[in-house]
Design goal:
The complex is a heterodimer of chains A (about 250) and B (about 300). By secondary structure, chain A is mainly alpha-helical. Chain A has one domain. Chain A is about 75% helix and about 0% strand. Chain A is built from eleven helices and no strands. Chain B has about 300 residues and is an alpha/beta fold. Chain B has two domains: about 210 residues, P-loop containing nucleotide triphosphate hydrolases (Rossmann fold); about 60 residues, Alpha-Beta Plaits (2-Layer Sandwich). Helix content of chain B is about 35%, strand content about 30%. Chain B has eleven helices and 14 strands. A six-stranded mixed sheet of chain B has the order 6-7-8-3-9-10, sandwiched between helices. In chain B, α3 packs across α4 and α4 crosses α5. Chain B is elongated and about 75 Å long. The chains are: A mainly alpha (about 250), B alpha/beta (about 300). At the A-B interface, α1 and α4 of A face α2 and α3 of B.
């Protein structure tokens, strides 16, 4: 058996294991769908043309953030607490297989959410986009899971398994609101709009909204740069902590 | 004669937490095919010692050689990890994966090891192969963890309190498995706080107390050290008469209560009662293992002191 087999099995079993956790799967899939149906499609503010398309972008962003942060934070914290991670570290499994498996699981869930939301948008929501727009939006959101996965990794490495779910919620929900994912960002008070610059979810949603020309009008490069920098900083931080914690060579 | 290969060697290993020295100048060697039991009460430093050997925590000073290679700090190379097997005290697998799935996953980590079905059989969980880890009983979980520790057909196996929480029968079965491994030439380091377990399994026992080895030897040698019991009573006999009783090795007195250390407790008591019919508050006690070893090391130190004085 080759190293590739380890990566495949690790990814497959991580996905199965997560899939068998209803407490994770149900909220991850239903919350974005139900929220989008209610606040994006059914209760569209009167006369706001393109509301469903606008909210499709923000709820896609909301949808992909959750599984990435929760999967990494909660499962790594509990793998640590139960000694599962220690056993794996002592086996010859490359640690990258473990992290990559979690990333793939997050991507699979992100893809599921995107497919669900896009289907609702295209049918009930009557959102009409070019093929290239659908495709670009999906790609942006899939790539966009990375910074959130890293935030989850950082939390998973530093928090206990009991604290992790609460802390992720404490970060996830306000971050979604303050990034304009529930209410369009321009409806928020001025100082909250400025605060939004802190969150990767704001920049990710602005990238998506740019496709529909519904963003706040800041340069594309600026959002991209901030996202890349945030991701880089989070990567370095996670690597440092992971090295110190795991001591894997 | 060919010298046996050394698989594990520790030289002056020391580890401190804050101002407490958890491991104090530990020296240890394990050769091919040998089973070493590290025996000690809870908090003696057994788990810290295993963690330091495996590179889960860094020692403050001293050298660790695993399979002949000097190790630095935390972490062990993947090539080395492929030749080690580990069963830790807290080792829980993903609760959502079945026995067969866990075995499939672990088998993939070790290209030269057992196949997944072989691991299921090793764990003796063929009928439970489709059950999720979370639904297994405590003993079944331990068996699976033990099988996974063997997944790579390791040269050197670490077992940290392997029978903790097992019932008598499960413990006996695991002992049989460990004995089979010895016959196949696997070297094993196991920690335990059961003297009986160390006696059953080990070629050599090292007694760890407060981060130091206070005694070591073959099971027979160590057992002899703990064979004596304590006889406590109020007696009219004087010290010389009490020391003359059969089996009595040592005597200590606190006001009226005298404590005798006896290697043959039945004969001691019999003689005591026949020579003194006023004996009251008679009590026979087992010496606690730790206490026995401590007294033993203390008395051996005294012994060598007196010898030294005589020589001088």
């Amino acid at each position: 058996m080759s190293t590739l087999t380890i990566y495949q099995k690790e990814a497959w079993y991580d996905l199965i294991s997560v899939w068998r956790t209803p407490g994770f799967v149900l909220p991850a899939l239903t919350f974005p769908v139900v929220f989008y149906l209610f606040f994006g499609v059914l209760f569209s503010p009167s006369g706001a043309a393109g509301h469903a398309a606008y909210m499709l972008v923000t709820y896609s962003c909301f949808g992909i953030m959750g599984p990435a942060m929760f999967n990494f934070a909660m499962n790594i914290a509990s793998d640590r607490a139960q000694g599962w991670l220690t056993l794996k570290r002592l086996s010859p499994m490359p640690v990258s297989a473990y992290l990559l498996a979690k990333m793939i699981t997050s991507l699979v869930f992100a893809l599921l959410i995107i497919v669900l939301l896009f289907s609702i948008a295209a049918t009930v929501g009557e959102v009409r986009l070019y093929h290239s727009q659908w495709l670009s939006l999906a790609l942006i959101m899939l790539l966009g899971t990375l910074p959130f996965a890293l935030i989850g990794l950082l939390l998973g490495l530093t928090l206990t398994d009991k604290a992790a779910p609460g802390v992720v919620n404490l970060l996830y929900l306000p971050m979604a609101f303050l990034s304009g994912l529930w209410l369009p960002i321009h409806l928020l008070p001025q100082f909250l709009q400025q605060l939004a610059w802190l969150w990767p979810s704001y920049h990710l949603s602005q990238l998506g909204l740019k496709l529909l020309a519904r963003d706040q009008g800041y340069p594309l490069e600026l959002h991209l740069l901030i996202l890349v920098l945030t991701t880089a900083v989070l990567t370095i931080l996670s690597l440092l902590i992971f090295r110190r914690f795991a001591g894997v060579k | 004669m060919k010298q046996a290969k050394t698989l594990l060697q520790l030289k002056k290993l020391t580890k401190r937490f804050a101002d407490k020295t958890v491991l104090n100048n530990i020296d240890l060697t394990v050769t091919q095919g040998e089973i070493l039991a590290i025996l000690g009460p809870n908090g003696a430093g057994k788990t810290t010692l295993i963690s330091a050997m495996l590179g889960l925590t860094a020692a403050d000073s001293g050298d660790i050689y695993l399979l002949g290679q000097l190790q630095q700090g935390t972490g062990r190379s993947s090539a080395l990890r492929a030749q080690l097997g580990v069963m830790l005290q807290i080792g829980s697998l993903s609760a959502n994966l079945t026995v067969a799935e866990q075995c499939d996953l672990f088998a993939s980590y070790y290209p030269a090891g057992y196949s997944a079905p072989e691991l299921v059989t090793l764990a003796g969980l063929n009928t439970e192969a489709g059950q999720r880890f979370g639904r297994l009983s405590g003993g079944q979980k331990q068996r699976l963890l033990f099988a996974l520790a063997l997944a790579g057909k390791p040269d050197l196996l670490f077992l940290d309190e392997p029978t903790l929480g097992m019932d008598v029968e499960a413990r006996r079965k695991l002992w049989q498995r460990i004995d089979q491994l010895r016959q196949q030439g696997t070297s094993i380091v196991l920690t335990t706080h059961y003297l009986e377990e160390a006696e059953q399994l080990a070629d050599r026992i090292m007694v760890l107390h407060q981060g130091k080895f206070i005694a070591s030897g073959s099971p027979g040698e160590l057992k002899a050290l703990t064979r004596y019991k304590l006889v406590q009573c109020c007696s009219a006999l004087n010290d010389a008469a009490l020391l003359a009783l059969p089996g009595v090795l040592q005597l200590s007195r606190q006001q009226d209560v005298v404590t005798l250390h006896s290697s043959h407790v039945e004969q001691t008591v019999l003689a005591l009662l026949s020579r003194d019919n006023t004996v009251s508050q008679l009590e026979v006690r087992q010496v606690a293992l730790e206490q026995a070893f401590l007294q033993l090391t203390a008395s051996s130190a005294e012994h060598s002191n007196t010898l030294g004085e005589q020589a001088a």
